[in-house]
Design goal:
It is built from 4 helices and 2 strands; from the N terminus they run ααββαα. It has 125 residues and is mainly α. The termini are far apart.
C-alpha cells in the first residue's frame, strides 16, 4: 500500500499539476495587482472613483448592490483581456520556434538512420 501511495504522490503528472497550480496562483496575484494597483486607479482618474461598490439600487427596504457586480465584471473583463494578450504572445513565440524547427531539416542522426533503413530494405544481389 505504501508503494502505491509513493507511486501516486510522485507521478510526473501529479507533480506537473502541482507546479502548474502554484504558478497559476502566483500569476493570479500578479494579474490581481495589475488590476487593483494600476488599471483601477486609471479608471478612478477617468470616472472619479476606483470601484462602483457604492452604487446601490433600493427596492423598498432591500438594497441591491449592483455596483459590486459592475466592479467584479470590469475586473473580469480586464483580467480576460490581459490573459488573452499573454496567451497570444506565447502562441506567437511558440509558432515561430516550431517554424524554425520545421525548416531546419532532418538531423544528421535521422539522415544516417534513413540510409541504414534504405540499405536494409534494398534487394541484395
Amino acid at each position: 500500500m505504501i508503494q502505491d501511495l509513493k507511486k501516486f504522490l510522485f507521478k510526473d503528472s501529479l507533480i506537473d499539476v502541482a507546479v502548474a497550480f502554484i504558478l497559476a496562483t502566483a500569476f493570479g496575484l500578479v494579474v490581481k495587482s495589475l488590476v487593483n494597483d494600476i488599471l483601477m486607479p486609471i479608471i478612478a482618474a477617468i470616472v472619479g472613483k476606483p470601484s462602483f461598490d457604492d452604487v446601490v439600487i433600493n427596492l423598498g427596504d432591500t438594497p441591491i448592490k449592483i455596483g459590486v457586480f459592475i466592479t467584479l465584471f470590469i475586473n473580469f473583463l480586464i483580467i480576460g483581456t490581459v490573459l488573452f494578450f499573454i496567451v497570444r504572445a506565447i502562441e506567437r513565440a511558440t509558432r515561430g520556434r516550431k517554424a524554425e524547427e520545421n525548416t531546419a531539416g532532418p538531423t544528421q542522426e535521422v539522415v544516417l538512420l534513413t540510409e541504414i533503413r534504405d540499405a536494409l530494405a534494398a534487394p541484395r544481389s
